[in-house]
Design brief:
By secondary structure, the protein is an alpha/beta fold. Helices cover 34% and strands 23% of the residues. The strands form two sheets. It has a ten-stranded mixed sheet.
């Protein structure tokens, strides 16, 4: 039977399911992010490295925040720099991010790294070495070695490094994380993550080129769902991985009609589908399924959680548990509602200003990268591998 949250259920789950969700694992509630709009703020001058599509998303939100201005940009493509000038009025534009940091450093307070994956490492380290707080889009790097070097650079320079994960900021993610932290689920036994497209090979950018991207759907969209799940269950340490990857369509021409037709199959060197299993030091097991191509009914982006006392489906926010002598399905009546991109970018701005604790720190990005590396390494080796 399906129950909506009433007085008894609210008492059972405690204040976690109240209409004002208290985020115990976070420094502040979502409302506090918006309070900054009503307070005097110190200016934050931001430079962009990689001025393509995702950078435009960063700029869109940062342009709405008091005291924030986009003052410089770097990109190897002249067209991207032209857009920065024409659309955003930015005139300090460079094809080399090192030159930008050298010439404009005194005018820059923080840096947003929005390049393809292969440039994250060099760009972020250059900005961190220049003593600038950084937000770096996901995945953190091409591999865990690079990710650790980036984390080390942030620590060495004593500057904040925010990983551009956003699904950990969703209302449903925060509610489940609080319930799990409060012991409502008991020990987490197993987590199933799915980021599956039936036919969704990107036909733009470098998503099909392993040398520039690091991999295919596992590192591109799998990273989103695995980081959200890892955050929800309390960021345990991964210790082992197994998995496999499959390429069966993306590197061949096709006449099948699809929304994203016409990708460059001649340069396609990544997997179409990857599956993996991660073992954590808590004993929890996590499986990840990610695909650009899979013969399935519909696209899936979901997390299932199996605990000793309760389970949940992230997609619907349903919770499954026992109450008294009955099995019940609980649907929270209200979890809050906010724009996760607004939260993500406000969070970075506040962290860069030194006004809040970093909720997506480098060490989380490193662990996520180790999980991705583990699946790819296990696929290449044909057996389970240890994660250091």
């Amino acid at each position: 039977m399906a129950l909506f949250v009433g007085r008894a259920t609210r008492a059972y789950f405690g204040e976690i399911l109240s209409t004002r969700i208290s985020i115990k694992n976070m420094d502040t509630e979502v409302d506090a992010l918006r309070e900054s709009d009503e307070k005097p703020v110190k200016p934050l001058r931001v430079a962009i490295i990689g001025c393509g599509g995702i950078a435009q998303h960063h700029i869109k939100y940062m342009n709405t925040f008091p005291g924030v201005s986009i003052v410089a940009g770097a990109d190897i493509l002249p067209a991207a720099l032209d857009r920065m000038k024409e659309k955003h009025g930015v005139t300090a534009l460079y094809e080399d991010f090192n030159k930008m940091l050298e010439k404009e450093g005194k005018n820059i307070d923080a840096v947003s790294v929005c390049t393809p994956n292969g440039v994250h490492h060099a760009a972020a380290i250059a900005a961190l070495n220049a003593k600038k707080p950084v937000i770096c889009e996901k995945p953190m790097a091409m591999n865990a070695k690079q990710a650790q070097e980036m984390a080390d650079a942030a620590k060495r320079n004593n500057v904040e490094f925010v990983i551009g994960f956003q699904h950990r900021y969703e209302p449903r993610s925060k509610a489940l994380r609080d319930m799990i932290a409060d012991g409502k689920f008991g020990k987490i036994l197993y987590v199933r993550c799915q980021a599956l497209r039936r036919r969704g090979i990107p036909n733009w950018g470098v998503f099909g080129q392993k040398a520039l991207q690091g991999g295919g759907p596992m590192i591109d969209i799998g990273v989103h769902i695995i980081e959200a799940a890892h955050s929800i269950i309390g960021t345990p340490k991964p210790i082992a991985a197994t998995g496999n990857t499959f390429t069966f369509l993306g590197d061949k021409p096709t006449s099948v009609v699809s929304e994203w037709a016409g990708w460059d199959y001649k340069t396609y060197t990544v997997e179409d589908m990857a599956v993996g299993m991660i073992r954590f030091d808590t004993g929890t097991m996590l499986t990840i399924e990610a695909s650009f191509v899979a013969h399935i009914e519909r696209d899936i982006f979901n997390i299932q959680i199996f605990g000793e006392k309760a389970g949940a489906i992230w997609e619907s926010s349903q919770i499954f548990t026992d109450m008294g002598d009955y099995m019940v399905n609980v649907t929270p009546s209200y979890l809050g509602k906010w724009d996760i991109w607004d939260y993500k970018m406000r969070h970075f701005v506040d962290v860069a200003r030194g006004e809040r604790k970093n909720e997506a720190p480098a060490e989380h990005g490193v662990m996520v990268q180790k999980m991705l590396d583990g699946v790819y390494a296990a696929s290449a080796a044909g057996h389970e591998v240890t994660i250091d």
